[in-house]
């Protein structure tokens, strides 16, 4: 499975990349929506771990782009917002992850989507 991690916080990106690589996934990363868009044009991606609240352009924009151009890519919203707020802000994602939860929760969500 190819995973794109999109988060403007380098520390969070780094942790997500390390745990996903440790579990055997191929991972690329982007610090903002523009870089993520470029990577999506150049790389087949099965799953996107997408932050909502980013500096220049928020994750809702990339979500809309991915829905159009990467229909087969699944998206897990990763945010500090509570899950209900995430679901309200971005409807229809494959799953949602509250960054205050343990990383094991995120790993379970990724592995579940990898089985589908």
Give the helix/strand layout.
Blueprint lengths: L1 E5 L3 H13 L3 E5 L2 H10 L4 E5 L7 H11 L4 E6 L3 H7 L5 E4 L4 H13 L1
Parallel strand pairs: 1-2, 1-3, 3-4, 4-5
Helix pairs in contact: 2-3
* Count of beta strands: 5
Low-confidence stretches are none
Radius of gyration: 13 Å
Major sheet details: 5 strands, parallel
Query: What's the helix count?
Result: 5
Residues in β-strands, percent: 15-25%
Structure, described:
This protein is of the alpha/beta class. It has a single domain (2-115), classed as 3-Layer(aba) Sandwich (Rossmann fold), CATH 3.40.50. It is 47% helix and 22% strand. The chain is built from five helices and five strands; from the N terminus they run βαβαβαβαβα. It has helices at residues 10-22, 33-42, 59-69, 83-89, 103-115, and strands at residues 2-6, 26-30, 47-51, 74-79, 95-98. The chain has a five-stranded parallel β-sheet, sandwiched between helices. β3 (47-51), α3 (59-69) and β4 (74-79) form a beta-alpha-beta unit. α2 (33-42) runs parallel beside α3 (59-69). The longest helix is centred in the first third of the chain and has 13 residues, at 10-22. The model has no long low-confidence stretch (mean pLDDT 94).
């Amino acid at each position: 499975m190819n995973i794109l991690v999109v988060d403007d916080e380098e520390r969070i990106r780094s942790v997500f990349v390390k745990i996903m690589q440790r579990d055997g996934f191929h991972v690329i990363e982007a610090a903002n929506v523009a870089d993520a868009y470029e990577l999506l044009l150049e790389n087949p991606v099965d799953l996107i771990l997408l932050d909502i609240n980013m500096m220049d352009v928020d994750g809702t924009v990339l979500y809309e782009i991915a829905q159009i151009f990467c229909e087969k890519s699944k998206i897990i919203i990763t945010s500090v917002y509570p899950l209900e707020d995430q679901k309200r802000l971005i409807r229809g994602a494959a799953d949602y992850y509250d960054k205050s939860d343990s990383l094991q929760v995120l790993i379970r969500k990724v592995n579940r989507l990898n089985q589908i």
